[in-house]
Amino acid sequence: MVLTKYKIIEIFINYIVNTFKLLYYFDWNLRFMFKYKFLDQYEQNFINFSKHNFPDNPLSYKFKQSKYLFSDIPDAMAKLINTNLQFPTNSYTVFQKVLLAGPNAIPISEDGQYILHPHNKETKDYLSKSSPKSFMYPDKEKIVYFNDETVINLVSPWLNEFNKNYFHWIIEGLLPLQSLFLNENLISTKLKVIINKDPSNYQLESLNMLGIPHNSIHEWDHDLVYCKKLVLSKKTQFNFSNVDIIYPQSIDWLRDLLSVHNNGLICQKDRIFISRQNSNGRKIQNYTEILDVLKKFNIEPVYLEKLSFYEQFNIFSKAKFIMGAHGAGLINIIFSKNAKIFELFGNPPDHFHMYYCLSQIIGHDYYFNFNNYDYSHYNETNFNSYWKEHDIYVDPSKLSKIFNKIL
Fold this sequence. Notes:
single chain; alpha/beta; 31% helix; five-stranded parallel β-sheet; Rossmann fold; 407 residues; seven-stranded mixed β-sheet; 22 strands; 3 domains
């Protein structure tokens, strides 16, 4: 292969950047290599904590095959069919005298040990994304003290001022709050819920709907915070066959707590299509054609970016048929009961079967279809991106046949 002038420059720049990172993070890499002061959440040598199990652990679940198949079953789904899933016991921990440091609020014990985050999948990856220099050498002159409050931290590499993804907010923002509500001694005390700086409206609205007042919210601004009492939820998801599956009792808890707000007629139809025409990627190329098909089957398009959290909850809690391209908006199916889920794929991501798994444990009927896709509108943004965004072409004739079978 002949290297062009630009390719040589790119290789040289990458070499300089990687060398700088190696030197700059040398102390961090050395520390990680020897696992120096890395503390698992449940290590018994950390005396200032108490562990609490969640009640009512779920029974095992068996993954089923969809009744109607319109595409070949991908290996990731096929290997799950007829597989029994047994959730381990879930729990949360209450720590005493803990510091939170760095842009992603890493918990650190009094003697400088890192308490591993309950949602981390890969320790080094998680901590490396959290700017190690910032939590290795925090500026203790700028410390904020929470001596009287019970603190729960919802900041992470997936939830911070630069990443405010709706999916991650539901999973790693709202569901961990179950820990507080399970313990009367915690929920009855003064609370301080730490969230990302400049939160989205749906974040503040959803917290309000759960009964958490605005004066209990602390927006994280890369502070150093001392918590006399810190609550860490172990996990809201269980990793099974390389996909994270939400604990069913956590879904039930959130849905039941929000159900008092389920009183509006936001959407007259119980068949909805999640439109991404105003979003980045996975738009329907032949949208006008597909709208005609949707209208024929009384399916109403919804534009989630225009809706409040309250409106989204109400719409999905009433929906009996939910269709949409793979994306964050489909996490709203946790608010539905006994629905039919129809997911559209173009070029699927590695974790594309997560809504199949989620539908199984909730009790939804799940259907899917693979479609032709096109990268041409995203050539520039895809150049330096791991995830290659694309749009989808849906065959209207095939879609009508599918609807005739499942509706």
